[in-house]
Amino acid sequence: MTINEKNVNNTDIISGSKNSDTREGRDSLSLTSEMPFDLMGLFFFAYRDFVSDADALLAGHEFGRAHHRVLYFVNIRPGMAVADLLNILKITKQSLARVLRQLIDEGYIEQHTGKTDRRQRLLFATSKGRDFFAMLSKSQASRINEALGRLSPEERQAIRRFFVSMVAERDHPLLESLQLTSNLDD
Hints:
The chain has 186 residues and is mainly alpha-helical. It folds into 2 domains: 41-150, Arc Repressor Mutant, subunit A (Orthogonal Bundle); 152-186, no CATH class. Helices cover 61% and strands 6% of the residues. It contains 9 helices and 3 strands, in the order ααααβααββααα. Strands 1-3-2 form a 3-stranded antiparallel sheet. β2 and β3 (121-125) form a beta hairpin. α3 runs antiparallel to α7 (127-149). It is globular.
């Protein structure tokens, strides 16, 4: 492929190019020294493979990743308020309403009114929702456990600390409230 060819995707990588324009452009951005392209690429491929099996199962139900995210949080935190879910997912009410309506209508999630605050809407996974979540999580848990099994306990802790460090500091209390940092050593 030459540098002048039009690509369908502008992010196409031209590997092995000795074109001076490409090299000069790369140097002007200091890409090799300031940006961790190796880690960014590894993160992309790891995430792609992490979600691939779940994506196939979701597609079979005409669901997407937003449905999976809702199922994840409602399953790990039964009785979660819709307001809390909006805060976690950082999406609009309209976006969540569409996904939630489909999950409720198809019997994966139930919505109950709060006991102390009748305006509050609390979400619970149904048996069908718990079973589907377990099916979605099985391959992902297997992939994670297999990868972590190749690491020492210290390396596993470093991975956990890395992921916590990737999350905005303002959301660290949220991670703690969801008990996602309970396996971190001090």
